[in-house]
DNA sequence: GCCGTCACG
DNA sequence: GACGTACGTGACGGCG
């Protein structure tokens, strides 16, 4: 059959010279059936206005076709076809009558759309290809092989794993729904083997959806391990007797025939006849009349408008080579003297042209201050290949306000022009931009009207690979991986009082510093990026990390409104009351002392007054923390209470009232925090400058601070928080039946725990009993110890020990979970979350027992805290788009670990509460299906205190 | 620049 | 038997 295709349909490729810019044929093969289903499920059930004909899948399909034809510049197809399944019966059913036997019929409202989709395809001037007796996958395989062998390039538009066996040089897949490229490394991440061995792995693990039997009890992990060990399936089956594990060996021997059959079922047939010659698939302009009539018939008005607009403007195609895969570069010494300072437009344009050629570049922005939400741009650096980098200054000036034109050595391209030249490249989908801590650059450049995309972030790549092992700042990564110490910022800008803003740094030094940052970033990328797929962490990076910088940049830039007058009044009130406490304390002692000095307090309490019951800190000083002072106060002493009261106010004033006012940006009148994405071991964010994740709430006095966080006029603040998320995750991960049931039934979880432990009915339970159970539940999540629980509850240690014992008797699954985490961390020195995030805990190998025990407790806590962090990250990533789709104007402002804070128009408060709750509760899906419900409580009010 | 303390989840 | 003791953060003032 293949002869026929070869002889009758000679490939155009051979006739056409290969251009410098890439292969002459770039064939896009759209997996029609799979796309229809995804469009159907992803989109709301749209219908034709006039008669209610279901049209959602058709609309999604047309949008994608349009996008393929118009959006992509250098990657645009020269040839394009949509491939459909033709009939249910194929040659595979002759091999195995149960093949795809359990497929449910398509949804009723989808059935009429199948024919319309074919009509749509033709209306766009694109070929529809199908062949009786063959699946679309086989046709895709045949076209792919032909074009690839003739030197062309193929992009398969599908995310179907069955097609991954086709990936290889010049054949990639494109998941348009997720906007992901699937190349060799993504295949390796999915199957644990390269594309050439995918069928072997699939043959072993089978596929329940297609009803491919495989070998019982063997999943992807085991299958890929076996294939990697033996090389290929035939060798494995031939040498199955050598397998050590009894059960596995027997399975492979007993089911050898079934495994071979499975391989035949999943193996795609490259010799499938081609119904249309490749030449006929060339992309052609759609006939405007035909397309217009189609869009009119199905009332696809918004698409018709977009097509009209696109037709009016120029295509803007920019020639470039396809993006090269990042490769390991030979390490070479970093030489800062070769960097270029770009100071005229022509040179800048040539650098931009080289960026297009390179396909992957690194960049960095330099600013005149630290806060990305307000800092001004000083310049941008670009690195095109290791050692080849430049700096484009835009805002450098003499310190005393000298005009640029007056100083010859400060001549720079005007800001507007730099932006005009850089913007198209920085926004071009065919140029991948790598940054170190991309959130910063995104935030700065977005204020200059540039939306940088696509972006990768070396800091986040490092974080995914090695969280918990070390920091992820550039200097540290450079020292670690490149053996190179980048020029310290201090060396170019000075330090302490003599430090100057970067805009006052002389251009030569600025170029060395800035271009080196881009150069180092590119080298780090080349070094670290390939590890993601190899180590199975690409999905974690792509789903939990890479999408977040733009989301956080928008939150930081939005900021939150804070009432300065309210805070100043509060500050004055606190000052006056502190003065009273101070006078009282000094009267009690009989002489002045500094209430802010723990050392002096220790001397007073345990020296002069000779109180008993003190403890020492790690450095041998008297401890005077609130636990100590509380217990002294309980003994009946007066001074400790005064000190505690003074301290509370001192803390609130020093850390909150005064500094929050100081943090209000003069430009925006709001407070802009900065979120660190890679500072915690567990995947949580942290907030700095100022920290808005530790605003007081637990005491009456503290809550007053929260009242200062307010919504802009006409708006409300909405606080939405996950209820008991870590305990719910414990119930799921530890598979604790009683806990799961309690959460499903919406019971009071602490009361339920108390009831189970102490055999007390929930009705009329004394609050002290519930309080103790609550402390235990929290303690469990932290890796409980009798000492810690005793401390927390102020009860004797043996009593606390007895509680813990009872708890484990009532919930044996929890002990099992804890033991499992301990074993895992001892073996691997890391644990993982249910989303695959890896949390390293190197201290488990420490010499000191104390450190090791610490590590064990961290290992118990990390999968829970980490999974909660993963979940809220997923919610945050989806939130902006979800709000937009719902037509809501709300902006996400803050994140506090299990809480999101929004600012929304007052009249949209209810709708926003409903939507954000929905997005947050569904956040684990579809990656993880929790066996307990997630519950989110959302409230709107004029200030944060009342919204929470 | 470290330490003790304390704000949050 | 000793050891240090609930997980994860960031910011402040004191002190050397």
TrEMBL record:
It catalyses: DNA(n) + a 2'-deoxyribonucleoside 5'-triphosphate = DNA(n+1) + diphosphate. Coiled coil: none annotated. One of its GO terms (molecular function) is DNA-directed DNA polymerase activity. CDD domains: DNA_pol_A_pol_I_C, DNA_polA_I_Ecoli_like_exo, H3TH_53EXO, PIN_53EXO. Residues 25-284 form the 5'-3' exonuclease domain. SMART domains: 35EXOc, 53EXOc, HhH2, POLAc. Pfam families: 5_3_exonuc (PF01367), 5_3_exonuc_N (PF02739), DNA_pol_A (PF00476), DNA_pol_A_exo1 (PF01612). Keywords: DNA damage, DNA repair, DNA replication, DNA-binding, DNA-directed DNA polymerase, Exonuclease, Hydrolase, Nuclease, Nucleotidyltransferase, Transferase. Residues 339-533 form the 3'-5' exonuclease domain. It is an enzyme of class 2 (transferase). InterPro entries: 3'-5'_exonuclease_dom, 5-3_exonucl_a-hlix_arch_N, 5-3_exonuclease, 5-3_exonuclease_C_sf, DNA-dir_DNA_pol_A_CS, DNA-dir_DNA_pol_A_palm_dom, DNA/RNA_pol_sf, DNA_polI_H3TH. Residues 702-908 form the DNA-directed DNA polymerase family A palm domain. Its EC number is 2.7.7.7. Belongs to the DNA polymerase type-A family. NCBIfam families: pola (TIGR00593), PRK05755.1 (NF004397). In addition to polymerase activity, this DNA polymerase exhibits 3'-5' and 5'-3' exonuclease activity. Single-chain monomer with multiple functions. This is DNA polymerase I. It comes from Caulobacter ginsengisoli.
